[in-house]
Automatic annotation (TrEMBL):
Coiled-coil ranges from the UniProt annotation: none
Gene name per UniProt: TANGO2
Cellular component GO terms, alphabetical: Golgi apparatus
Signal peptide (UniProt feature, chain positions): none
Naturally occurring in which organism (per UniProt): Geotrypetes seraphini
Designated name of the protein: Transport and Golgi organization protein 2 homolog
Length: 275
């Protein structure tokens, strides 16, 4: 039940404006092994958390110093096929390959049936050539679509599906975005983290119930908040990514430690895009 809110503005007209503002929650079983965000790869240029589940692996969200960014959410369904490929590889492969996001997403669309249902966002941030972002949902259109400048919300359904929690979070996100140029970067990050940790249930939501069916019904109350808290499962990481008009990237991750909702670690990374 991960959730992502983002504003894509490839050519901001204002000085000190942002080309990308992204705020995301990773929801997962508390005991599923993972590593907090850090740089990895042969050249130490890929920044993400890592899923350490045996036979799965990959990541849910990451960015590189070359300006490649990708984020994944699973599509809510009553059951999943454990014999299919791990979806975390979809993000990791994009971050580690040289393919542009259009070419990569074309391949992903052709092989989408090899995975349980998912949503994938990829982007190339290039100060010289311009920024592009694509979305593909394996339960939606047969091909990926380029995203126009704007504000988007993505949960465990197709992009901007009007789940109540998505609409609620997008409204809060938009309010913060409207003030972003008046806020110091550190305050903007804190305001976005506050949204991601909102535990107000947006209930009832017939759309979630209809999609999740018997899987979701016993725990529907827990899943209708932006910050999910269910027995043994919930929001384990908050991630904020900012890319400003000069190509400066700010990456903040707040991640749960020791499967304990009272123990958290916050990591901050900053770097300049390498083109």
């Amino acid at each position: 039940m991960c959730i992502i809110f983002f504003k894509f503005d490839p050519r901001p007209v204002s000085k000190n404006a942002y080309r990308l503002i992204l705020a995301a929650n990773r929801d997962e079983y508390y005991h599923r092994p993972s590593k907090p965000a850090d740089f990895w790869g042969a050249s130490n240029e890929i920044l993400s958390g890592l899923d350490m589940e045996v036979g799965r692996g990959g990541t849910w969200l990451g960015i590189t110093k070359r300006g490649k960014m990708a984020a994944l959410t699973n599509y809510l369904q009553p059951t999943k096929d454990t014999h299919l490929k791990g979806r975390g590889a979809l993000v990791a492969n994009f971050l580690s390959k040289d393919l542009d996001c259009f070419s990569y997403m074309k391949n992903v669309a052709a092989e989408g049936h090899l995975y349980n249902p998912f949503n994938l966002i990829t982007a190339d941030f290039n100060t010289a050539k311009g920024d592009v972002m694509y979305y593909y949902g394996s339960k939606g259109e047969p091909e990926s679509v380029p995203l126009q400048p704007g504000i988007y919300g993505l949960g465990s359904s197709l992009l901007d599906t009007p789940w109540k929690k998505l609409q609620f979070g997008k409204q809060l996100f938009t309010q913060v975005i409207e003030q972003c140029q008046d806020l110091p970067k550190e305050e903007l990050v804190q305001e976005l983290l506050k949204i991601l940790n909102n535990e107000e249930p947006q209930f009832p939501d017939p759309a979630i119930e209809a999609q999740g069916k018997e899987f979701i019904l016993p725990i529907i109350n827990s899943f209708t908040a932006l910050c999910v808290r269910a027995p043994g499962y919930g929001t384990r990481a908050n991630t904020i990514i900012l890319v400003d008009d000069q190509g400066q990237v700010t990456f903040t991750e707040r991640t749960m430690l020791n499967a304990d909702v009272n123990q958290w670690k916050t990591s901050n990374f900053q770097f300049k895009l390498q083109h």
